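Look at one such:
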Amino acid sequence: MGSSLTSIAPSQIYPVEYYLTELPDCTFDSNLGSTRFLKVARAKNREGLVVVKVFAVRDPSYPLKPHKDQLEAIKLLLKNVPNTVPFQRLLLSERAGILVRQYVKDNLYDRISTRPFLNSIEKRWIAFQLLQCLNQCHELGVYHGDIKLENIMITSWNWVLLTDFASYKPTHLFVDNPAEYSYFFDTSRRRTCYIAPERFNKIMSAEREKSAGTATISSSSSGSIAPSSPSLIIHSDEIKTGDLTYAMDIFSLGCSLAELFTEGTCPFDFSQLLKFITGDFNPHETIQKIEDSNMKKLIQSMMQKDAAARLTAREYLDVQHDKAFPEYFYTYLYDYMKKYVSIPAMSPDEKIYILKNDINQIIEVITTYEKSISVNESSNNKENVVSEGLVLMVPLLTSVLKALKHCSAKLNALEVLRTMANYLSPEIILDRLLPYLVFLAKDKYPKVRVAVIQTLTECLGLIKSISRSDSNIFPEYILPNLSHIAHDEAVIVRMAYAENIASLADIAMRFLEMTYSDMEPDPDSDALLDEKERNLYNKVSYEHELQALQELVQQSVTTLLSDPENAVKQTLLERGIRRLCVFFGREKGNDVLLSHMITYLNDKEDRHLRRAFFDAIVGVASYVGWQCCPILEPLLQQGLTDSEEFVICKALAALSDLAKENLLQKQTLNKILAEAVPLLIHPDIWIRHSAVGFISVVARSSNVADVQCKLIPLLLPYLNYSGNRKNLIQVESELALLYALKDPLPRCIYDYLVKLQSLRNLFDCLCERKISRSITRVGHPPSYREMETSLLTVYNRLQSDGMTEEVEEQILLLKDHLQKVQIKKCNDMSMSSSEKDTGEIDLNLLPVSPQVHCISLVSSDNQFEKPFQTIQRQKNIKEEVGYRFTYYE
C-alpha cells in the first residue's frame, strides 16, 4: 500500500463503530484492537460473527481500487483451498476501505498457551496443514506476505486456517526506517519480526529520503507524526504485484513453526532480524530447543538467510514424508478431515454420525502404521496399545459434544469416546475427555447421564499411571461433580451410579496409592527429614487423604443405600458392596454399609431386594468379621421362613458360605440348624439341595462329638434308614446325604397348608393322631378321635391329594416352618389386597381432560373413514348396536 502512509497523521480520529454504518447488515459487537493502519472489530450479521477491518481514507487520491481488485482475485482463487479464510467482502467508500471475513475465535499464538497444551503429534499436524496450505496457495500464484501466529487461526478441533492475506502491504522495507515495520506488520505490539531477509533494502533511496525530509517519523505507534507532503502518497503506477515469492512465505512460516515448537519462544524480534541479515545474530539457540530432530531440520532449512536455498512447500512435504509427518497424514487423515469443512456445513449431530461410522477404520489406519514403524511391540492386546496419532481425533469429537441436540447423537458420541479411550494415554483421558464427561453428566436426557457414568468409569479404569499433579483429581474434581447424581430424579441414573460407584471408589483408591508409591522426595520440603521421618510423614498424609476420600464417597453411598427406590438399593448390593467394604475398611463397613443393609429385610413387598441382601451379606460379613454374628443371626433365621422360596434358597446359600468362613459361632449354628434341617423334606428341590449343602458344611467344620451327638440326632427323622444308626452314611458328603433323604412333602399339600386358615387346628389333630399311633400295639389299628366337620373337610382334601400317615409325620416335622411361612403369606396377601389394582382409571386424576369419541364397530358402512364429527352425530342412532371406546389425545 505504500510506506508513505507511515508519515501521515490523521486530522481527526473516529472509532471503528463510525465506519460500520457502511455495512447495514452488520452490528458492532466488540473492539478487537486498532492500530494507525487498520481498525479491527468483531461484528454480527445474519450468518454469524465476522471480523471487520477498516482503513480510514484520509486522502481521496489513495490508490485503493487496485488493492481491492487484487483481494477479490485472491478470494476467487482460494475458494477451494480448505485451510484459508480470505476476505469475503470488500467495500470502498469515500470514508474508508472495509475488509470482512469470518470470525475464528483462536489464533495459534493464543492456542500455544491454552490448556490442554498441544503435544508433539498435534504440532506436527498443524505444521503439515500449513505446508499443504502454502503449497496449494503457491500453485495458484497466491502469496501471503505476512505469515505469523496471529494470522494463523485454529479451530477447536485443530483445523488450521490461514487468514489476512497481506497483498496490500509493502513487499520491501528499509532497514533504516523501523516506522514502516511498526505501521504495517507489528499489529500485536510483540515486536516479533518474521519478514524474510530479502524483503529489506539496506538504505532508503535518495529520492525517497529527499521527499520525506520534511516528515518527522516516530517508531512508536502513539508518537507524534508531522504531516507529510502530498508527494509521499503512493499512486497506482507504483503498486508492484509480483514482488512476493514463495521463499518469503517459507521463511515466515519457518519462524512461526519455530515459535510453535519452542512453546512460544520467538526466534526474531525486529532488531535481531536486522542483525541476522548482517550476520551478527543466529537463532541457533532457539532452534536447538526443538526436541523433534526432523522438525528441527525442517525449520532450520526454512529459516535460511539465502532465499535460493529454501525449498518449496511441496518439496518440504516430500522430504519429510514418513519422517516428521506420518504416512497417514498424506494418504488418509488430511483428506478425511477436509470433509468436516466442506460446504454445505454439517451439523454437530451429523459429524458425530459420520465419525461413529468411520472410527474403526480410523483406528485401523493409524494403529497399523504405528505398529509397522514400532521397534518394540510390548503387547498384542489392543487395549494396552497407546496410539499417538489417535489424539488428533479427540478434538474433533470433543469440539461438538456441547453442541449436540439429539439423545442418539450424544449416545453415539459417548460410544466413540469409549472406543478411542482404549488407545489414549492417561494424560489425554484426564485432560481432554474427563471435562466433557463431567459436563454431560448434567445432560437433560437420562439415557445420556447413564451412558456418561458408564463411560466415565470405563475410561478411568484404563488409567494405569498418574502424574503427581492429578493425584487429587477424585476428591477435588470428579466426586464433587458427580455428587448430584445420587439425587438424580431419574431412577435409571441412580441405578447406574449405584452400579459403578464401587468401581469409582476402587479407582480413586488406586490413584491415591499410585501417587504415594511413585512419589519422589521433594528436595525443598524433605531436605531436613531423614528416610524414617519422611516415610512417617507420607503415611500420615496418606491416611489423611484417604479419610477425605472416604467421606466423599460415603456421602453418595449413604444416599444410595437409603434411596426410596428398591431397584437402586438392589443394584448397589449386587454390583459392588464387597468392594465398598474394602474401600471403607472394617469399622465403616459395619457402621455405614451393614447398618443400612439389615433394614432391607423389613421390605415385605420386594422379594428381589431380600434375595440381593442374602447374596451380598456374605461379602460384607467376611470383611467385617465374626463381630457381626449377633446381628446376622435373627436375619438369617428370618430368611429361612421367607414367603418366597427362592429367598429361602439364597438364605441357605449364605449360611453355607458363612459357615465355610467360620463367621458363625457354634451357638448360633445350633439354633439355625434346628430351623434348617426340616427343609430337607421341603418340596422345592433347590431348597433341599441348599439345605444339604449347609448341613454338609457344618459337618465338615465340626468335630466328631458334635456331629454324632448333635447333628445326626437332628437328621435321623429325615433319613430313609433312620432305624439303624449303623447304616447312616457320612454327613460330610453332600451327594450321599442327598440320596439318603426321605421323599419330600408333596407340593400340592405344601401349597394348600401355607394358605390354610385353620392350620393350627390341623396340627393339633395330627399330633393327636401321632400319639394314638405311638401307643397302639404293633399289628393293631390305631383308634383316632372323631374330627370336627370343618377339620374333617380339610383332612379329606389332604387325603385326596395323597396324604398318608408318613406324610402326616412330615407335616409335623415342618410344623414350625409352615406356621411362620403361613403367617407371612397371609400378611402379604392382606397387604396386596388392600393395594390391589382394580384396573379402573379415574379420569378426574388425569392431567388433561380426555376427549371421548364413540366408534361403532358393527355397521354396514365403514365409519372409520368418516370424520369424528359425523360419528358423534350418529352416536344416538347406532349406540344400541355398537360399543364404546375411549382414547386420549
In short: The first helix runs from residue 16 to 19. Confidence is low (pLDDT under 50) at residues 210-242, 376-383, 863-868, 877-889.
